[in-house]
Fold this sequence. Notes:
By secondary structure, the chain is an alpha/beta fold. It has two domains: 6-73, Arc Repressor Mutant, subunit A, CATH 1.10.10; 78-271, 3-Layer(aba) Sandwich (Rossmann fold). The chain is built from seven helices and twelve strands. The strands form three sheets. An eight-stranded mixed sheet has the order 7-8-6-5-9-10-11-12, with helices on both faces. Strands 1-2 form a two-stranded antiparallel sheet. Strand 5, helix 6 (142-153) and strand 6 form a beta-alpha-beta unit. The two termini are 37 Å apart. The relative contact order is 0.13. It comes from Polycladomyces abyssicola. One of its GO terms (molecular function) is DNA binding.
Amino acid sequence: MNKWKRSARIVDMTRQLIQHPHxxxxxxxxxxRYDTAKSSISExxxxxxxxxxxxxxxxxxxxxxxAGGVRYIPGMDRKTAEEVMRSLCRELSNPDRxxxxxxxxxxxxxxxxxxxxxxGQIWASVFAKEQVNAVVTVETKGxxxxxxxxxxxxxxxxxxxxxxxxxEGSVVTVNTVSGSSRRIRTLSLSRRSLKEGSRVLIIDxxxxxxxTIRGMIDLLSEFQAEVVxxxxxxxxxxxxxxxxxVVSLAKIKSIDEKQRTVDVQLGNLFEKGWEVG
Length: 277
């Protein structure tokens, strides 16, 4: 392409910004790529920002100065997020999902890329201002959720293992108590997977008493990490909670195995009046 038209520039810039969320891109990079004045690039970016803001898909943040540039901050407006989660709550309320012991089958939902992308975008909105360096989860069902959140935050994922694996190299290990069954289990994290002093977001698929998240917090303290937030896709009622301030997207109000009924509602996130970061 010899000469970029404005429409082509806008499409290409939007693609690059979305593919690299939270990465600061100098205006000179765009100016050189399109052989266009920085003033024209600034006008294009204003258009992109207005469209993103209007459609509730986040927006652009511009930093002035020689070391400045522009970066895309992913987001989702509250109305759209509620629509996504109400649809998921209806799906989870299907009695065919009831498993023995009062659990719900969710694995098929955690395998849907489009849904995961939307959930990750919600997490990115909630924790956009926390300057997250890494997302941490425990194997295995939390992994796709953590990857979705990390993709929108532009950070890596560190996976906590249950037990030790020789392929992880040197690890840090803690023992934790399951809040529901009171069983002792071992959680470990490779020393190479997380830098000391990182600002960490914990993401998991399900929480009852919060024993797993409590264990991850204890483990992360060995890395001098600061846990800036914790989120779960679904929470269930519990007599006691081992952790506080965990943000949930959905909440199981009741499961009746005999009557084959399930009541799943919006999580505490939508009770807190959250704002897009």
